Amino acid sequence: QCELLNSEGVECTNKIFKTTLRECPMLFLEFQGADAALLRQDFDKVVAIAAQHGCVASEVQYAEHGESLDEIWEARRGCYVAAMRYRGQGRDRVFVSDVCVPIPRLAECVAGAEADCQVLGLKCVICAHIADGNFHCLVPHQPAEMEAVNEFEAKIISRALACGGTVSGEHGIGVGKVAHSCREHGEAHVAVQQSIKRALDPLGLMNPGKVLPLPKDGPAKL
Fold it and tell me: Helices 178-185 and 146-162 meet at what angle, rounded to 10?
């Protein structure tokens, strides 16, 4: 596994789950194999590569088993629950959105998302499956902040598209990202998909308005 958690993600996990990880952007790597010595060699090679790119060796933590390993992964696994209670305002709602970008543009997009949240006065827990360029933004909020949350999502999607990415890595399109998906793929592409949908579902009974926009002339009439 190859995962990332931003500093706010580590901070809220420490706060809620009482972990003691250093509150900075954190990369999680999990190595698997039958020979512990070889795994450690692989780990040391990765550490050496990271050092060439500014990673401070004193901040590297290696864990094989037990509580130390659980604490490291607790930060990543528990970030959604932690985000709900992060701001101490009762049980915040958590807005979840994701995008996927080419790996060389991932750092730029994550940093941009954090900057957007600061400008909009929001907190943002970012976790990422960075081996495939997919990152998730968890934004705790109250209903009165929804306008700012929607603006934030529009910004991260625009940046992802500008970087050659896609509007959703794994959460799907559903209803909320229909307009963004149409923007990504273009009218001609969407029209072809709508024609296929209409051929299979002429009455528009199957999840109308999800993934694809409703046809302007409505479903077929029988």
Answer: 20
Q: Is the pLDDT of residue 64 over 60?
A: yes
Domain ranges of the chain: 2-79, 81-171, 173-222
User: 81-171 is classed in which CATH architecture?
Assistant: 2-Layer Sandwich (3.30)
Confidence (pLDDT) at 222: 40
CA–CA separation, 135 vs 106, rounded Å?
8
How far from 81 is each of 24, 60, 102, 196, CA to CA, in Å?
Answer: 19, 26, 28, 40
- Nearest CA-CA partner of 140 in 99, 76, 91, 78: 91
Whether 18 shows a pLDDT value over 80: the answer reads yes
Nearest to 128 by CA among 147, 108, 148, 155: 108
Cα distances from 79 to residues 13, 19, 160, in angstroms, run 6, 12, 23
> Between vectors from CA 5 to CA 142 and to CA 96, what angle results, nearest 5°?
35
